[in-house]
Amino acid sequence: MKILNLYAGIGGNRKLWGDDHEITAVEYNEEIAMIYKDNFKNDNVIVADAHQYLLDHYKEFDFIWTSPPCPTHSRMRYMCTKSNLGNGADRDVKFVDMKLYQEILLLDNYFEGKYVVENVKPYYTPLIPAKELGRHLFWTNFIIGSYDKKGAKVRGGTMKDLQEQNGFDLSKYKIKHRKDTILRNCVDSELGLYILNCAMNIVTKSDDKQITMF
Fold it and tell me: What is the pLDDT of residues 166-176, one digit of tens each?
């Protein structure tokens, strides 16, 4: 498939997708895009505004994964605005970033392929119903079954914990962006593969029994 991976980060969701697909990744931060390219050399990596790139190029792909910025939607940040938690910037009240819903509506009404929009569980009732898996919400135009993985994703561990959990070694990179934040923003790679398999209606094996994602 021709896959578009938007707000790609360092590629947590993409890590287990392999190299059989033609993948274009869009990441706004040049340093983070460099790390992505270093790990996925066959992908076409573009440093650009993912939101605008989606509008301009959505017709060119078979499968689109987009993970718009989540801070204004997050429960944690909302708690910071109501308390003395976090730093000053985290306590500032901000409008919810509606790019999330703009992208859902665009893809649902205009895109002819398969799509998934990923974000955190918000502090408000989602304006458009979504599938909840772990700490994520997923909006798709295909069916996602239950996903059960033993062990929770590390959120507050050491750099070593975060690197082992996500399968990325950032020690060799000298960058301005906080490495722990980059790793915490990664979607679990097994979950990323599971979602792609759901989109492709792939049958997987578990305990020698074939089970469909649906």
Answer: 888 888 888 88
